[in-house]
Specification:
Blueprint: H1 12-43, H2 48-54, H3 56-59, H4 69-72, H5 95-103, H6 119-122, H7 132-150
């Protein structure tokens, strides 16, 4: 049986294997990062990110009505302490009422309401406003904010 000799090409199989190992390693690192980022998001209660982005400027990061805008813009009435909603109602969190207030489209707006945005309008998907899919997504986000607030009750 004749011997095969890989004179100058003897390093090529090793280089190809090394390249495959590097590519596999990069894919593994990317997968680990994706899992870690997903886990960090999953660890955050649903609704917390939207609350922090849309509500905390007025209601505060701790939801006690002490957001940074309160010092800059006179608000009458001032933002509510959202951690006391259940205690003000005999210990029962008014979930549906909170959802309606956040959404803002159900009640006829009063002058006081004008200060609080109508999140049911603001959170609509651009280009799909008020479509069944957009309304369903808005409802889900608002309910998640309400559940997050429910978890903050004192």
């Amino acid at each position: 049986m004749p011997k095969k000799v890989f004179e100058n090409a003897s390093h090529k199989p090793h280089a190809a294997n090394a390249a495959r190992r590097c590519a596999t390693g990069a894919i593994a690192v990317a997968a680990i990062l994706a899992i870690a980022i997903g886990s960090a998001r999953a660890a955050q209660p649903a609704g917390q990110a939207d609350y922090q982005q849309y509500c905390s400027d007025c209601h505060g990061k701790d939801a006690r009505g002490n957001g940074p805008l309160v010092k800059q813009i006179p608000m009458a009435p001032p933002p509510s302490d959202l951690t006391l909603l259940a205690s003000a109602r005999g210990g029962k969190f008014p979930f549906d009422d909170v959802v309606d207030v956040i959404d803002g489209r159900k009640a006829i707006p009063s002058h006081a309401r004008i200060q609080m945005p109508f999140w049911g309008v603001t959170l609509q998907k651009p280009g799909q406003e008020f479509s069944p899919a957009s309304d369903a997504a808005v409802k889900q986000r608002i309910q998640a904010i309400a559940r997050y607030l429910e978890g903050l009750q004192r």
